[in-house]
Design goal:
The chain is of the alpha/beta class. About 45% of the residues lie in helices and about 15% in strands. The N and C termini lie far apart (about 40 Å).
Length: about 325
């Protein structure tokens, strides 16, 4: 057993990311050294220039970003992310990390690891930065475009269990994304989910606080925000784009004149921590909740820093027994 407490390695998919294998390998190597966790690299050996002390598990195929997710997993059985998921299923790895095709990573985990008993649909949980406070867990952020009210109830149960481990909250607050705070607001899906979440005992490790609006997701209005995957993905991409626009505009303003450059020297030390908070690489990746194993899905453009944090997150979720926590939290019979 390592100093981290992990006996099984974390399998890192080195193929399919935007920046190529070298960035993924660099992050995996740094994570193994920093956290003292066992890490294996999974991919085409010839693509791994310098694995250092890390073992490489050969996988002959790659699922590209342009590939159809489900078909890619079914046809490319020797793909790196498929091999990662199989390693978790077979008890050879404790978790998988992939910055490749998001849909294919999700499909690999679902088809190879399977679902936790009672879970109707897995959901992607993404951390959203809340400056000056703990992040907000948003789910589903892209796994299920169309949902039912019982599924949203299960998303809330899984999200609350995740927030207990990730945010250290004894009783995380859970909000339902809608177009108004009143329980009468929203479409039939939201109204149905609200009714289920408001029932006594709906959440075993969280507290339902009612509807929240889009303006609330980057505040401390709720620790966990629940929605369908279509809406959640639109929210996520809108926020990512908005943050990028604001940061770029701020940087242009700081270099627009000599006076602005002088002011920037004073402001930058105070703004750098905020930039780190807003950077998705800080959080490593999203977690696929509901599958019978730990699957971390990192952004396609992940830097080595993002992979370091993704491996650290995977180790944390394994050590905290996230799968066991979700198994206890979910109400069987998601509809």
């Amino acid at each position: 057993m390592t100093s981290s407490g992990l006996e099984l390695p974390i399998a890192v998919d080195v193929m399919g990311a935007d920046k190529g294998p070298s960035e993924i390998v660099a992050g995996a190597r740094e994570a193994a050294e920093r956290f003292g966790v066992p890490v294996v690299l999974v991919g085409q050996p010839e693509a791994v220039d310098d694995p250092g002390d890390l073992e490489v598990w050969a996988a002959g195929e790659v699922i590209d970003m342009a590939d159809d997710a489900m078909q890619g997993v079914r046809r490319k059985k020797d793909a790196s992310m498929v091999r990662c998921a199989e390693a978790v299923r077979d008890g050879r790895a404790s978790a998988m990390v992939s910055a490749g095709n998001t849909g294919a990573a999700m499909a690999s985990a679902l088809l190879r690891m399977g679902r936790i008993t009672g879970v109707a649909r897995p959901a992607i949980a993404t951390m959203l930065p809340v400056p000056g406070s703990s992040p907000t867990v948003l789910l589903d952020s892209g796994a299920n475009a169309e949902c039912t009210a019982p599924w949203l109830l299960q998303f809330a149960q899984m999200g609350a269990a995740y927030a207990v481990l990730r945010l250290g909250k004894d009783e995380p607050t859970v909000g339902l994304l809608s177009i108004g705070e009143e329980k009468s607001k929203g479409n039939e899906l939201v109204k149905g989910a609200h009714a289920l979440l408001a029932e006594a005992g709906a959440l075993s490790c969280g507290r339902f606080v009612g509807n929240v609006e889009g303006r609330d997701v980057l505040t401390d209005a709720a620790d966990v925000v629940v929605t369908d995957g279509f809406t959640g993905n639109v929210v996520l991409k809108t926020l990512e784009g908005s943050v990028r626009v604001v940061v770029d505009a701020l940087l242009r303003a700081m270099t627009s004149t000599e006076e602005a450059k002088g002011a920037a020297k004073v402001l930058l030390p105070a703004l750098l921590p905020l930039q780190a908070e807003l950077d998705p690489d800080t959080y490593g990746g999203a977690v696929l909740l509901g599958v019978d194993g730990i699957c971390i899905i990192s952004h396609g453009s992940s830097s080595a820093r993002a992979i370091v944090n993704a491996v650290g997150l995977a180790a944390e979720m394994v050590a905290g027994d996230l799968v066991g926590s979700i198994r206890k939290a979910v109400t069987v019979g998601g509809g």
